[in-house]
Design a protein that fits this description.
Helix content is 49%, strand content 15%. It is built from five helices and four strands, in the order αβαβαββαα. The longest helix has 13 residues, at 2-14. It is globular, with a radius of gyration of 13 Å.
């Protein structure tokens, strides 16, 4: 399990914003992942994604890594924020955009 934790940690550290999700941003494989992608797209930030359906070790490992039972999971500048429900609450309150601005997350290329 420590090998998976190292892989996940490397991914989280290498990207300002990373979404562990089912599917890809262009083809999400569940409604929650689709909603998470839509929220990030509305925020206009650059982000990377990891399709947990392509790697069963990461799919299970990310749950232990974050101590969070569900996917998708969002990390910003190495910090775990939560899943799509928390993302939606933060987005609706304006907190997600504010956090992205405070952390100086790069904007998505048009």
């Amino acid at each position: 399990m420590s090998d998976v934790n190292t892989r996940i940690s490397d991914i989280v550290k290498a990207n300002d914003v990373v979404l562990f999700m089912k599917g890809t941003p262009l083809f999400p494989q569940c409604g929650f992942s689709s909603r998470a992608v839509a929220i990030l797209d509305h925020c206009g930030v650059a982000y990377d994604s990891v399709d947990v359906l392509q790697d069963m070790e990461i799919r299970q490992g990310i749950k232990a890594y974050s101590d969070w039972p569900t996917i998708p999971q969002l990390y910003v500048k190495g910090e775990f924020l939560g899943g799509s429900d928390i993302m939606m609450e933060m987005y609706e309150a304006g907190e997600l955009q504010q956090l992205m601005d405070e952390k100086q997350v790069a904007k998505a290329e048009s």
